[in-house]
Amino acid sequence: MGTQLTPRFVLIGAVIVMAIYMLSPTIEYYFFPPDDEEAKEALQEKALKLGLDLQGGMHVVMEVNIPKLVENIASNKTLLYDALAAAETRAENDDIEYLDALLLEANERNIRLARHFIDYGIENSEIISALEDEADDAVNRALEVIRNRVDQFGVSEPTILKQGSNRIIVELAGVQDPERARNLIRQTALLEFSLLKEPDVVQAVITRIDNVLKSIRTGIDLDSLVAIAVSTTDTSDNTLTALAESKDKSISVDEIFGVTTNESNSAGSEGSVIVDEQIFDERPFSALLRNIGGDIGVPAENVKAVRRILALEEVKAALPADMKIIWSNNKRDFGGRGLPSETYNVLYAVNREPGLTGDVVTSASANFGGGASSASGQPVVYLNMNSEGARAWSRLTGANINKRVAIILDDKVHSAPVIRSKIPSGNTIIEGMNSINEAKDLSIILRAGALPAPMEVIEERTIGPTLGRDSIEKGTNAALIGFALVMIFMVLYYRMSGLLANFALLLNLIFVLAIMTTMRATLTLPGIAGLILTIGMSVDANVLIFERIKEELRKGKTVRSAIDAGYSKALTTIIDANVTTILAALVLFQFGTGPIKGFAVTLFWGILASMLTAIFITRTIYAYVTDRFEVTKLSI
Questions:
Q1: Do residues 460 and 510 touch, judged by C-beta distance below 8 A?
Q2: Sign of the CA dihedral with 52 first, then 53, 58, and 63 last
Q3: CATH number at residue 415
Q4: Reported pTM
Q5: Do 30 and 93 belong together in one domain?
Q6: What is the dihedral of CA 213, 218, 220, 221, to 10 degrees?
Q7: Do residues 58 and 460 touch, judged by C-beta distance below 8 A?
Q8: In the chain, how long is the greatest CA-to-CA distance?
Q9: What's the CA gap between 304 and 100, in Å, rounded?
Q10: pLDDT digit string, tens, across residues 578-619
Q11: Of 467, 482, 556, 581, whose CB is crowded by the most CB atoms within 10 A?
Q12: How confident is the model at residue 347 (pLDDT cuts 50, 70, 90)?
């Protein structure tokens, strides 16, 4: 008989050794972490992952910006911008869906949407229905794009799920830099190459904004004010003030809009700005700006006021339909030559329709610039384009030599180089990054693909490590206390057989944690609850077996016969109970989300492990002991 049991013991020993080996990275990382950071990071990759509720991290709920999605899809946009803006306002005021509002606006303005949404249908209602399908598809595409980005970012076991029709939940456990992760998942990555407007066109637009603002300040009708300005103003004097020539003074933001000093001291005042007092009365908008190396600079103190001015409906109406004004991605520091150092944001006036978009980009890589370029030694992103993009880039650069092209990502200009020669290869460089990490993140975003539309953050929570430690301590204490109570009960009630059950229980936990470590599963707080439930289920199986053995002993059977009969009769009940629980765990895993999945994982593997330990391992040990020592009385 002992010879027959030998293969079983070899198998059990091999399984236990393998489980301990699989679990060793987790034990080493959490209890004996190495001092070397690189070794620790390598070990972390192999160790059991902890969920968001145990180690902290980010929880973000985002929503697809449907108005921007529709704008991205539309063609011949110049004739449609007013309707799109009106639809957005109407949807907000009337509390209706944006696409329903767009349909109403299009019908009221007699706009044939088929001219702007080619291949989406003929009738306006038909096109709106197609756009609704496109919006649903956009959420699914955004889900995949975000998942690709997070995978390349290197977050362990992220949770990325769709919620409702247009929302996405992202949970990133153990994130060390929440701001960087937030930018990575939110950034639309809409890459555009747009030509800058000519200086005389830009100056004419600034003059229009000056007149709009002056009209608001003085109360004079805008048309009359423009007529006066044309007859009395020398247009050659309408250039921005250079840094060295400006005579700066500080005034209230409200004074720009003609509010008196007493009124500006009210609760509605928004602070102060720096203006050039030489031109402020005649050119209030220009007085907020500075000429910095041929670009339009906005002192840091004036940024909020300039944003407020550019958001005015009268100012938007003053802009040409084919122009948009956007900000630089980074600030610039100017000073020296007797001038104080100051930080400026930069405004760019660019063509509204881009000459090229980022969908032609085939690869992107981050590195430091080399050679004699202005980006030498600075973090940059190298881009390669497909054949279609290379041809378009060649035409764009060849036809606009000595002009400037803005490289725009999500409506922010990263760089605006001068086109020195035709570029036929389809290769280009994005400059303007503050750090190599920013360049790496941008390359990840461009490689993973652009989101179909901007994502608005609806909800965001950052769970700190302190809460995670508290959760770990409480969950671990609960599991240990439950484990200890069960073990004490089993020993007191079933004596030596209770010790055998406790050994099986310990193996059960080792097997579950080892499997989860190998599968790179994540242990969550509900997962710990699943472990505790597994302890109960495992003990339940042993109790059933032991009680059956007692019944057989009371009938007068020998120890060996009672053990065999007890296992045989309890087997059906154990399998029925455990199989139904396994099926429930599979359903929870398939249809559950987040915490429910964490519970289902530990429950599923825990039940399988308990069946192995309760039915196979303990029976093998019983058989070995009773055969080896010829036991005539069982301590049970």
A1: no
A2: positive
A3: 3.30.1360.200
A4: 0.55
A5: no
A6: 20
A7: yes
A8: 122
A9: 34
A10: 888 899 989 888 877 667 877 888 889 999 888 888 888 888
A11: 581
A12: very high
**Residue 555 belongs to a domain:** yes
Cβ-based neighbours of 478, under 8 Å, separated by 6 or more: 528, 532
CA 441 centroid distance within chain: 12
Residues 410 and 320 in one domain: no
Check pLDDT > 60 for residue 466: no
Burial label for 497, CB within 10 Å (0-12, 13-18, 19+), is buried
- pLDDT score for 358: 77
| Short-list 503, 507, 543, 623, CA closest to 634 | 623
Are 372 and 324 in contact by the 8 Å Cβ rule? The answer is no
Instruction: Supply the range of the domain harboring residue 130.
Output: 57-186+455-463
- 3-state secondary structure at position 444: helix
Cα separation, 100 vs 93, in Å, equals 13
Domain count across the chain: 4
Q: Are 263 and 381 contained in the same domain?
A: no
In tens, the pLDDT along 430-461 reads 777 777 877 887 777 777 666 777 778 888 87
Q: Are 161 and 200 part of one and the same domain? A: no
Phi, psi of 258 (to 5 degrees): 85, 15
Same domain, 520 and 535: yes
CA neighbor of 500 nearest in space, from 627, 608, 624, 606? 624
Q: Of 300, 315, 349, at which residue does a domain stop?
A: 349
Output DSSP code: residue 312.
Answer: S
- Give yes or no: residues 277 and 300 share one domain: yes
Q: Are the beta carbons of 92 and 506 closer than 8 angstroms?
A: no
CA distance 102 to 105: 5
Contact 208, 318 (CB under 8 A): yes
Which pLDDT value is given to residue 241?
A: 66
Domain boundary among 349, 378, 394: 349
Q: Is residue 636 part of a domain?
A: no
User: Residue 3, Cβ neighbours under 10 Å: how many?
Assistant: 6
Is 448 within the bounds of a domain? no
Q: Are residues 419 and 494 in the same domain?
A: no
CA 436, CA 450: separation in Å to the nearest integer? 21
The continuous run of DSSP H or E covering 456 comes out as strand 455-463
Closest of 267, 286, 266, 264 to residue 276, by C-alpha: 286
CATH (domain of 75): 3.30.70.3400
pLDDT at site 232: 44
User: Is 360 found in the same domain as 296?
Assistant: no
| Beta-carbon-side half-sphere exposure of residue 627 (alpha carbons within 13 Å) | 13
Residue with tokens 């890589």: 365
